[in-house]
Design goal:
Length: 253
């Protein structure tokens, strides 16, 4: 008889940010297939005797190809196991969770989900910078800053360059210069504040406050590396601990 796969969001790092459902599923699993962004503390919560299969990074830093990950999940479920597929953040936000679920369900395997706190939500609450704020941002967009090797980062800069929207750029460290340039070309001011947060919600969290026209140089100088995300927009002004009333006046003026 086939087992099943629990598609679990482990959150951004801090084990306290896992949901009760995520924890229950992790403890019920006898096989755990995990991403590199899942912290050791979270992994340590698996059931005694469960088998761990890391697929985030193989030797020499090559990631395990997605097709292979799909096959591992399928093989383990077909062998009758309850498989925890642990992913950083939420499995359905830049996490390929839906691709894995579609593949498994296409092969008759049952999938159950546990949503996770996204890296954006974790960084927002750990820094105190909201993603929306009355008078500063009426919407938020999660954007990938990653491009396939040899391909140009093909984003709709015009749509993204909205001064009333907060942008959260995922996987953007390598391309932050190109991203800032694309936004400024569509008239988002160079003075727009940017907050980069590395390893958010972990003991190694790093923060860098910058602005659009300087962020690439600042990130290079600080040596920020993945996993890092960027919060771009007026909400970042709240990080400077200026009185909210003054900021709102500034935003409207
Ligand atoms: C493949 S995506 C995974 C996103 C995840 N599923 C989520 O819901 O947040 C990986 C990217 O997420 C961001 N990220 C993940 N964990 C992070 C953390 N603890 N701090 C900052 N950024 C993080 C980084 O931009 C990283 O390159």
């Amino acid at each position: 008889m086939s087992g099943k796969v629990f598609l679990i969001g482990a959150g951004p790092g801090d084990p306290e940010l896992m949901t009760l459902r995520a924890l229950r599923m992790l403890r019920e699993a006898d096989v755990v297939v995990c991403d590199r962004l899942v912290s050791e503390e979270i992994l340590a919560m698996h059931a005694p005797g469960a088998r761990l299969i890391p697929v985030g990074k193989a030797p020499k830093c090559h990631t395990v190809p997605q097709d292979r990950i799909n096959q591992i999940l399928l093989e383990q479920a077909r062998a009758g196991h309850r498989v925890a597929r642990l992913k950083g953040g939420d499995p359905m936000i830049f996490g390929r969770g839906s691709e894995e679920a579609a593949f498994l369900m296409g092969h008759g395997i049952a999938v159950e989900y546990a949503p996770g706190i996204t890296a954006a939500q974790g960084a927002s609450c750990s820094t105190g910078v909201p993603l929306t704020h009355r008078g500063l941002a009426t919407s938020v967009q999660y954007v990938t800053g990653h491009r396939q090797a040899d391909k140009v980062l093909d984003l709709d800069w015009k749509r993204l360059a909205d001064p009333d929207t907060t942008l959260v750029i995922y996987m953007g460290v390598a391309n932050i210069g190109q991203i800032a340039m694309g936004l400024m070309t569509e008239n988002l001011p160079g003075s727009t504040p940017v907050l980069a947060v590395g390893k958010a919600t972990t003991p190694d969290e790093r923060r860098l406050v910058s602005r659009l026209d300087r962020v690439a140089a600042d990130v290079r100088a600080a040596g920020l590396a993945a996993p890092t995300l960027f919060i771009i927009g007026k909400v970042v002004s709240l990080y400077a601990e200026r009185p909210v009333a003054e900021l709102l006046e500034h935003a409207h003026g």
